[in-house]
Amino acid sequence: MKVFKKIIAWAILSIILQIGGLYILDNFVFKHSSDFKSEKIELSKDKTKDIKATIPSGAKDVNVSYDGKYLTYSQDNNLYIQDTKTGTNTQVKTENNGEILYYKWLSDRDRLIMAKKVEKDGEKKIQLVTYNPKDSSETAATENNEDICTYQEGMEVRKVSESTITGVYYIDLYKGGLKSIVYRIDINGTLTKVQLQTNILGNMQIIPHEDRLIYEDKVDGRFFVTNPNKQLKFNSNKKLTLLGIDRKDVIYMGELNGDKVTTITYGKISEDTSSWKKVTLDSVVNCNDLYFSNQGEILLNDNLKGSVKNLMTGKEIEYEGKLIQIKDDFIATMDNKGKLTYKNLDKK
């Protein structure tokens, strides 16, 4: 009888230990890895088909969203969004009747980032928001919709550089009087002022996977990087300009002859700039004719030939009409009647 009771006791103890072990594994060890979520995976679609958009005569600043679903343009001091599949136009009206000072498409989603001037408590303020064209809704970039700053007459929002990977925004404000100010908004919406090593800011751009900003001193042509603050030096006796940074954190610098690019130097911030690679162009080109893809490719538009050339592979794609924009997967063009057309960039 005693032996039987011992067997029962050990069996109960074993069950208790197993249940306890499973509870610990489920609630602590595998807490995060056991929460499965199903996601709808969308297969890649041909973005070039069924485009019904027409760009109005007199439209300015035409820009296409990252996947080509929408385009924006300004006309008569108003901002419009057009659905490229339906051709439907919608005027962008901000909350509180704000005046749009700056706007651009985010690089990887159908959202606009907008800086606007609003009346608040009897004063003019600048705010930063994202705008969803699907439902015309706004989302403040700052915590509790905090103002970027008080608006002063003649103040310009020159650029917003953002990383959707780190959730950080940098806003370049020019107050006039040879003074540039840059504000930073982190992923939590906290607003801070960036300490610059220049008063007159040239181009600036964030490194996508790092909370580091590269910027240019417009007066003497020096380049700096934040976090930590240091000068970015190059072994070149020619004037340089920051052309762009791709999604792989590769930085592209252009050597200039006047305001034209002659050579492209590129590499990462973690590498010595003396080891960066170089591409010497066959002829001088405008900065706006260069595009740096998320796959680390350099694309060059030739307006005279009507072609876009991949400088890494040598492949060239011809187009008709006027080039509107180069995107990662396609180019957007417009004919003389304003009809929008997309053409695939075949990278095989």
UniProtKB/TrEMBL annotation:
Keywords, comma-separated and alphabetical: Membrane, Transmembrane, Transmembrane helix
InterPro entries: WD40/YVTN_repeat-like_dom_sf
Domain of life: Bacteria
Membrane-spanning residues: 7-25
Gene3D superfamilies xref list: YVTN repeat-like/Quinoprotein amine dehydrogenase (2.130.10.10)
Protein name: Dipeptidyl-peptidase IV
Organism, as annotated: Clostridium chromiireducens
